Amino acid sequence: MPTAQAAVAGRSGGLSGEADRTVFGLLRALADVVLVGAGTVRAEAYRPAKVGQRWAGLREGRAPAPPIAVVSGRLALDPASPLLDQAPSHARTILITAESAPADGRAALAAKADVIVAGERRVDLWAAISALTALGYRRILTEGGPHLLGEITEAGLLDELCLTVSPLLTASGAGRIIQGAGSLTERAGGRVRDGCPWLTCWRTRGTCCAVTCAGQVTRGQVTRVTSTQVR
Ligand SMILES: NC(=O)c1ccc[n+]([C@@H]2O[C@H](COP(=O)([O-])OP(=O)(O)OC[C@H]3O[C@@H](n4cnc5c(N)ncnc54)[C@H](OP(=O)(O)O)[C@@H]3O)[C@@H](O)[C@H]2O)c1
After folding, report:
1. Rg (Cα) of the chain, in Å, rounded?
2. How many CB atoms neighbour CB 206 within 10 A?
3. Where are the domains positioned within the chain?
4. What pLDDT shows up at residue 111?
5. Cα distance between residue 180 and residue 125, in whole Å
6. Does domain 32-138 have CATH number 3.40.430.10?
């Protein structure tokens, strides 16, 4: 279940709006773990996830917030960064790396995060997902970025893609939301209202998210939809 990407000045915040933030918060509240590439962690200065009061009921029986699981081969991450240094014990950050990762970096980061080794030269996404599932993380939300999302798609691990199309014209140097050879197989409806982002959902497996432009959430249905074509 990935959210998808573009950027203004290298970060995604400038593209967002109330409805998009609602979707973002809801998806995190639903997730058992948030899977993200190290490129996005570095560009967006990731911090531990927090789930707002609005969605607290969705976490019943689970930790108050999902941990962030970072996919990285080089492990060029700052151990003093909030993501590694300030993660609560119930959502300790997870690093997913390969055997080839620099040993010193791995040792330094292991004090601050749980480390999963999945693959030899690069992270094997199937092994990574299996390891997360074995730890009890079954609802896996990936927030990209494009290269990780491309690998996940190519590996056939993508169930659903949630995409917000922001009503903003920008000339940033962002690539496509999925970089790589993967392809998606199904397109679901979205919605458009004046001044609002288009919230859409592609499904390859599973069920679609459901949030209105006004930020209202329904069970399994997008309400007040104007059907739209997004290319
Ligand atoms: N608009 C949005 O919603 C949104 C969302 C996400 C990202 N973005 C933007 O996307 C940009 C970053 O894009 P990106 O494609 O570079 O980021 P990315 O996919 O998050 O990160 C790529 C990095 O992830 C690691 N990685 C991925 N697959 C791996 C594998 N199989 N084995 C080992 N390591 C693996 C590598 O890290 P190491 O280099 O550490 O080895 C690689 O350099 C940023 O500008 C960000 O703001 C936008």
Report:
1. 17
2. 11
3. 1-30+145-231, 32-138
4. 94
5. 14
6. yes
pLDDT tens digits, residue range 99-152?
Answer: 999 999 999 999 999 999 999 999 999 999 999 999 999 999 999 898 999 899
Ligand 1 neighbour 29 (Cβ under 6 A): no
Contacts of 158 (CB under 8 A, 6+ apart): 2, 149, 152, 182, 184, 204
Determine if ligand 1 sits within 6 Å of the CB of residue 106.
no
Query: Whole-model pTM?
Result: 0.83
Is the C-beta atom of 6 inside 6 A of ligand 1? yes
Relative to the CA of 3, which ligand 1 atom is closest? 3
| Site to substitute for ligand 1 among 11, 34, 148, 154, most atoms within 8 A of C-beta | 148
Q: Ligand 1: does its nearest atom lie under 6 Å from the Cβ of 44? A: yes
